[in-house]
Amino acid sequence: MYGYMGKILRVNLTNRTITKEDLDFELAKKYLGARGLGVKIMMDEVPANVDPFSPENKLIIATGGLTGAPVPTSGRYMAITKSPLTGTIAIANSGGHWGPQFKATGHDLIIFEGKADKPVYLYINDDEVEIRDAEHIWGKTVSETTKILQEEFEGCKVLSIGPAGERLSLIAAIMNDVDRAAGRGGVGAVMGSKNLKAIAVKGTKKVSLFDEERTKEVSQAKVKILREDPVASGGLPSYGSAVLVNIINETGIFPVKNFQESYTDEADKISGETLAATRLVKNSACYRCPIACGRVVKLPDGSVVGGPEYETIWAFGADCAVFDLDAINEANNLCNEYGLDTISTGTTIATAMELYEKGYIKDEDIEADGISLKWGDPKAIVGWTRKMGLREGFGNKLADGAYRLAESYGAPELSMTVKKQELPAYDPRGVQGHGLTYAVNNRGGCHIKGYMISPEILGYPEKLDRSSVEGKAAYTKIFLDLTAVIDSIGLCVFSTFGLGLSDYVDMYNAVVGDIYTDETLLEAGERIWNLEKLFNIREGIDSKEDKLPKRLLEVPIQNGPSKGEIHRLDILLPEYYAVRGWDEDGIPTEETLKKLGLEEYLGYINKEMA
Amino acid sequence: MISVEVRLFATFREGRQNKYFLELDDGTTVLDVLNLLNINPEEASIILINGKNVDVTKVLSNGDVLSLFPPVGGG
Fold it and tell me: Residue A236, Cβ neighbours under 10 Å: how many?
């Protein structure tokens, strides 16, 4: 099998041992790489019910067969672990340049085990791998850490946590290339719990290709599709993902004030168009990406930093009723520096604002911090983000996310979370299929593992009626499975603005060998999805947690074009379980597991054995 | 006559205003407005009237808000 480097690094931080193991190609065929292989290793090597912060939990940093290969959008890697935020599997994806550089050292993935007795970082220079002292970078921000390591190790690419991960914030991200994030699920906190600050990598090895000539031809053809696609070649490079602000608002599914409202007249103040016209310095691209949706923006103090994604603009902006792009850019930059997930950080502040509005949080609780919790205060989003990153004052309470905050006041229903993870930037009441993906997502509230906004709002690959439930369960299943494929082969999900399943098969077969058909590659995605579900069931998080916050099921949208709409999870969920081949309790059936080649895990669905 | 608010987004703003308040004849369709603003109908990927998807043949009513988008995506 080509495409893979064929080596796994096992780093035991307790014993300070590094071992190199051969990649099991049979497993790579069956579970693909990156996400799929990472979940498989978590399932087989980590015992059930471990504390996510204990040395028994493992952290896997993994690339796919196409990561670093000469095909478009091949800059991705994944962080896989047991999430301290949700207790489910954590599967966080990031782009930039770190993933391909790591793979160029001749390794496909790293399994971190145990816990170092003091701060360390991992140094990888091709075959040379060392656990090194990190006392000098512990406590530093992400950009400081990157700069110091790049001075010590010229030309390296750096993945690191910031102060938030060191302080075990449950919403801490793993950062790479300064401003790219494997953001969700608290993966940065798991890294912090192991006293692992960073991974600095430099490699010179090339990804081996099954058919070099065909890879080149196939790659050129796919780049051409992306360059001709109006979204991939026009909207995304010009306006970034923030081009969505206006369309989502005009549709009336743009949550405002912690989902109390769903439309605002002020959206254009924080739109991708306004960002591009007033603060954008240039766009930026990840490794081998013809789309280049990244933003580089200027802050009011003149510094030039990574700019916000759509989700970030929404979380700090509309969700907190803040319509000030400078403040949003600054809060986004603080998240990058402290290593915080922007969606969870912004929405946790929004939750705090509602708790304050409703009288749960009192003035005296936040007086010492000198920062307000009033809707619309731009100073609040910046101030609280800083306090959260450092766990200072009341920020300490916010640093563990919206669910735990609201629960501590006896009002968990005010946190807009699924499986304790904060929901992203689309009101599910006005977009039925997308709401289903929120409820059933294996990693908790998440928009990106089954982006039904594409067909339901944007018309990709075809336009569906957003308010209808008809056919949505089956569609959602395909999106979830296809995204598992894209995450596992090492490409970016934005490539779907142009490419489809057959395009991924073309590229993957040219690189790894003629192994897959459309059917078998998508089935690998389904296998991965089912395995993640089994992991969650094993951890005691079964389908009873496949739900939405009460507000989104019982209170109709209050204003704007989607006024009166409500989410119909009661109809969609049983249909979804049926198309999955799961029983009515949302547990995979024996027949389904056998069909997917997951017989070895039958014990987890047998209630007597579990 | 009817009064209609037309909102343009993304690349449709290039060389045009962000917003137009138009007085139009009864029976005016979305296609008529696209022609008036010199927008290629094939590029109008998402057409909303008061937040609901419509096609170019839709006849406008007094007070409508017409939102026009070229193909956009993100996430």
Answer: 28
A232–chain B Cβ distance below 8 A for any pair: yes
In a domain, B19, yes or no: yes
Number of neighbouring beta carbons within 10 Å of residue A413? 13
Q: What is the ipTM of this complex?
A: 0.97
Alpha-carbon distance A494 to nearest alpha carbon in chain B (angstroms): 7
pLDDT of residue B18: 97
Helix (H/G/I), strand (E/B), else coil: A205: coil
- The 3-state DSSP class for residue A542 equals coil
B-proximal residues of A, 103-142, CB under 8 Å: none
Residue A610 has pLDDT above 50, yes or no: no
Percent share of chain B, pLDDT over 90: 95
Tokens in use for B6? 């037309």
For residue range A432-461, list pLDDT tens digits in order. 999 999 999 999 999 999 999 999 999 999
- In the predicted structure, residue B74 carries a pLDDT above the cut 90: no
> Which residue in the set A463, A465, A497 is minimally distant from B73, CB to CB?
A497
A453 touches chain B (CB under 8 A): yes
Residue B74 is assigned to a structural domain of this protein: no
CATH 3.60.9.10 in chain A is located at: 7-202
How many angstroms separate the CA atoms of A322 and A313, rounded?
Answer: 9
Nearest-by-Cβ selection for A454 from B46, B67, B73:
B73
- A160: which strand partners? A175, A198
List the domain range (segments joined by +) for residue B9.
Answer: 2-69
Is pLDDT of A609 > 70? no
The predicted pLDDT at position B75 comes to 79
Residue A118, judged by CB atoms within 10 A of its CB (0-12, 13-18, 19+), counts as exposed
Give, for A485, the enclosing helix (H) or strand (E).
helix A472-489
Task: Give residue-wise pLDDT tens across range A461-498.
Answer: 999 999 999 999 999 999 999 999 999 999 999 999 99
- A140 touches A148 (CB < 8 A): yes
B35 lies in a domain? Answer: yes
CATH second-level architecture of A428-497+517-604? Orthogonal Bundle (1.10)
Residue A113 phi/psi, 5° resolution? Answer: -125, 160
**A139 Cβ contact partners less than 8 Å away, ≥ 6 residues apart:** A163, A166
Rounded to a whole number, what is the distance in Å from the CA of A251 to chain B's nearest CA? 5
In chain B, the number of structural domains is 1
DSSP annotation of A173? P
CATH number, domain with residue B10: 3.10.20.30
Q: Is residue B75 part of a domain?
A: no
Q: Return the CATH fold of A237-422.
A: 1.10.569
Return residue ranges of chain A for CATH 1.10.569.10: 237-422
Four-way CATH pick for A7-202: 3.40.50.1100, 3.60.9.10, 3.40.50.720, 3.30.70.580: 3.60.9.10
